[in-house]
Amino acid sequence: MIPRALKRLFHQISIGDQSYRFMFRPGPPGEAVAFDCETTGLDPRRDDIVTIAAVRIRGDRILTSERFEAAARPEARMNAEAIKVHRLREADVEAAARIEKIMPEFLHFIGGRPLVGYYVDFDVRMVDKYLLGLLGFELPNPLIEVSKLYYERKYGDAPPGVSIDLSFASILSDLDLPVLDQHDAFNDALMTAMMYLKLRDMKERGVRIPRPRQEGGAHHHSGVG
Questions:
Q1: Do residues 209 and 153 make contact, with C-beta atoms less than 8 angstroms apart?
Q2: For burial by CB atoms within 10 Å, which of 26, 60, 108, 114 has the most?
Q3: How far apart, in whole angstroms, are the C-alpha atoms of residue 103 and residue 224?
Q4: What's the pTM value of the predicted model, to 2 decimals?
Q5: pLDDT tens digits in sequence order for the chain, 225 residues long
Q6: Are 49 and 88 in contact (CB under 8 A)?
Q7: Residue 145: which of 125, 117, 168 has the closest Cα?
Q8: Is domain 4-144 classified as CATH 3.30.420.10?
Q9: CA distances from 93 to 76, 99, 134 (A)
């Protein structure tokens, strides 16, 4: 596995389309972008993006007026389990553009800002697959994983054997955040942005998330599509 930093350097040197050099420059200070994709399934090699959404974060504010949302017409067949998750059928996105047409606008929206996500590696792998073919590089942005920030706040000092739950629902519940209609790419991006700001604030203040008394049990996490 080639480290991201090394890939970034290689892509920065070898970039073919110079108009995308801005992706390799840091974004505006104090800004980040929370983003989420809904997909035809959970295999980045075979599956496709169906919707992609992002919202900008500036300082401690979520800029819902500065948002990106797009539906894409996938080449891959829609997985039945995925349809249950995001409730989008092939008929719902058949009039949408191909993801390759959407990518340039998405890149201009995110720029070089850090990307905040829940299991962000999956979403990044989905985007990278198109970018490599389209522009010859992968997303060079710094990545911020909210489940990792949550783990540090809740389980960072836990004794061995403690039951660990990194599910989206548990994070929302522990942070006392509103549950929006889940598995809608924009709502998921918005909830992820809220998680990030709250966890970052807790980290700055040195505040931990209390754990229930019972210690011991199995490791557990569940993702969102």
A1: yes
A2: 114
A3: 22
A4: 0.83
A5: 667 666 666 566 566 667 888 999 999 999 999 999 988 888 888 888 989 999 999 999 999 999 999 988 877 555 545 554 545 555 555 656 788 899 999 999 999 999 999 999 999 999 999 998 888 889 999 999 999 999 999 999 999 889 999 999 999 999 999 999 877 889 999 999 999 999 999 999 999 999 987 544 444 554 444
A6: no
A7: 117
A8: yes
A9: 12, 11, 21
